[in-house]
Write a structure and sequence with these properties.
Elements lengths: L2 H14 L1 H6 L5 E6 L4 E7 L2 E6 L10 E4 L2 H7 L11 H7 L3 E4 L1 H6 L1 H9 L1 H4 L4
Parallel strand pairs: 1-4
Antiparallel strand pairs: 1-2, 2-3, 4-5
């Protein structure tokens, strides 16, 4: 699946997710998923995907970023990932995931972000 198709699939899955719909009224932030071969900036406004920037430049702003190798992202996206790939904290402690930027914004949106992140197990990753 190419990056454009993935972005549409991820946006739709997020916007249709019952948990996000129920809890994410104030889920507003911008974050980058750096998958080594692909980078995507996701802009959320009031629980909806507002924009998916699939070709960000070095000057495009975001609040925080998750950066890891393509292999790590592929493992995250498995329906049942190996131990230490089941969530961002485990992977940041034991694997190559790096969390950068304004982590306060991430923590303020953590519950909704975690639900959205786990959608990768449904939609896969583009790497």
């Amino acid at each position: 699946m190419n990056l454009s198709e993935w972005a549409v699939k991820f946006s739709e899955a997020s916007d249709q997710n019952k948990t996000i719909k129920a809890m994410a009224r104030y889920f507003t932030c911008t974050y980058m998923l750096d998958m080594e071969q692909a980078k995507v900036i996701v802009e959320m406004i009031d629980g909806k995907v507002y924009r998916m920037n699939i070709s960000p430049s070095g000057m495009d702003a975001y609040d925080f970023a998750l950066r890891a190798s393509a292999a790590t992202w592929r493992e995250f996206a498995k329906p049942i990932p190996k131990p230490m790939f089941h969530g961002i904290w485990a992977a940041s402690f034991r694997e190559d995931l790096k969390i950068e930027g304004n982590t306060l914004v991430m923590m303020q949106n953590l519950r909704n972000f975690t639900v959205q992140f786990e959608l990768l197990r449904e939609v896969g990753v583009p790497v």
